[in-house]
Prior knowledge:
- By secondary structure, the protein is α/β, with parallel strands linked by helices.
- It has one domain (3-204): Rossmann fold (3-Layer(aba) Sandwich), CATH 3.40.50.880.
- It contains five helices and 13 strands.
- The protein has helices at residues 14-23, 51-60, 63-73, 83-86, 192-204; strands at 3-6, 27-30, 42-45, 78-81, 89-92, 99-100, 105-111, 123-131, 144-150, 152-156, 162-166, 172-178, 181-184.
- The strands form two sheets. It has a nine-stranded mixed beta sheet with strand order 2-1-3-4-13-12-11-8-9. A four-stranded mixed beta sheet has the order 6-5-7-10, covered by helices on one side.
- A hairpin with a 5-residue loop joins strand 11 and strand 12.
Amino acid sequence: MNRVAIIDYGMSNLDSVARAVQECEADPLVTTSPKDLEHAARIILPGVGVFDEGMRRLREQGYEEALNELVIGRQIPFLGICLGMQFLAAKGSEGGAETPGLGWIDGEVVRLTPSATDNRLPHVGWNEVVHNGDGLFRDVPNARDFYFVHSYHLRPMQESDVAARTPYCGGFVSAVRRDLVFGTQFHPEKSQRLGFQVLRNFLTL
Length: 205
């Protein structure tokens, strides 16, 4: 069975992600240390919270070094969800001082800027995801709604890293891909049938 490591660094809703992975017919393994990643065919990094605190925890617990070796070095497929996607950036300013991210996607994490009176922050609820046909969205109709909870977003420097956008607060990138590194700003595990299809696609890419 497809063993999927779900990283526990103390800032994520692991149960819902693990249940979703299991429903997609894969074997979830919630980590207790970076050593658990060695047994995984794929890695998921969920996250809810603040960028600087999350990166501090990843570094202190030894996950950053392990992820660089396994994902970048050995090309193990990786999916970052919500804050986990934002960690892919070179840097982020949420939480005060500028903080280095994993640096796998050229860009930075910045606060959403409302462009209309009905744009509220945090951005919570269902909104459109307009994708470019990337394999992560195979069998997912375009411009369908997915579930979001966030106030910050990853702003990539290269258009080639963008897999999907969402028309809120002037528009923001809601999914990225570089090689076998994927990220979704939305929560696929909370996005019902289409969210589960995104997870299934990740598990087979």
